[in-house]
Amino acid sequence: MAKSYENEHPIKAFGWSARDTSGILSPFNFSRRATGENDVQFKVLYCGICHSDLHKIKNEWGNSKYPIVPGHEIVGVVTEVGSKVNKVNIGDNVGVGVLIGSCRTCNSCTNDLEQYCPSAISTYNTMYYDGTTTYGGYSDLMVANEHFVFRWPENLPMEAAPLLCAGITTYSPLKYFGLDKPGLHIGVVGLGGLGHMAVKFAKAFGANVTIISTSINKKDEAIKLLGANSFLLSHDPEQMQIMVGQSKTIMLASERDRLKYHDYLYRSYIDENKKIKRCPGPGCVNALEFEIGS
Ligand SMILES: [Zn+2]
Ligand SMILES: [Zn+2]
Questions:
Q1: Alcohol dehydrogenase-like N-terminal domain: which residues (predicted)?
Q2: 91 alpha carbon to ligand 2 midpoint, in Å?
Q3: What is the pTM of this model?
Q4: What is the pLDDT confidence band of residue 236, given thresholds at 50, 70 and 90?
């Protein structure tokens, strides 16, 4: 019998897949691999919707291969563990984020920076080691190597699944750059998925937070709902002028808008030695950019 999505692996699975660029997801019967000795199998209970899922299902980055089962903010309960797994047990709550594989030997991998591994394998729409396509968390069952499975804290609601992508994307730089101290002034550009996380973390760390947005409609949400201290409308030059020359840290939480802010920001990135470097010119832009002081 020819291999199909349903029988290329032994374990039946069900998900929602995109078949074309329409943005419409439809029911999809497929299969998961048997639980290997280092694998964790879990029942998916929650999965966040990341904006990158929307880009992927519509092929807006030009590299989508259909069918796609999106989802890389996945939380569930362990149903089976391989013989060499010692991190979690059956019944534990676990999560899987954006990655499910990497070479584990390169400089990045041996420094716990698997996200920079040139051979990193994404949780969905990438070819796994066995030559089959990876499918994400818009599904009922997940199997992943334990190295990429996180134990989910007992006291953390499982519906907080977006912590696995938007959460770590904003929490990590705040911690890494020492921005987790009270009294700092932090600007957050964009109030989408990342922006929500950024303002909540920054406020929890005790910062004075300014939201910088293209839409005045976000003002109430920013201040009344999320507790931001102030709000700037990004296309108002007079308001934006407030930023210039002030000692603030600006955190870009909006991919779409980042190029517009180059008038206000120095572009920076992290090199292979975890050092902050100034970008030499246009085109060298990381997902998060900072100006620290002036
Ligand atoms: Zn994401
Ligand atoms: Zn690697």
A1: 36-154
A2: 30
A3: 0.83
A4: confident
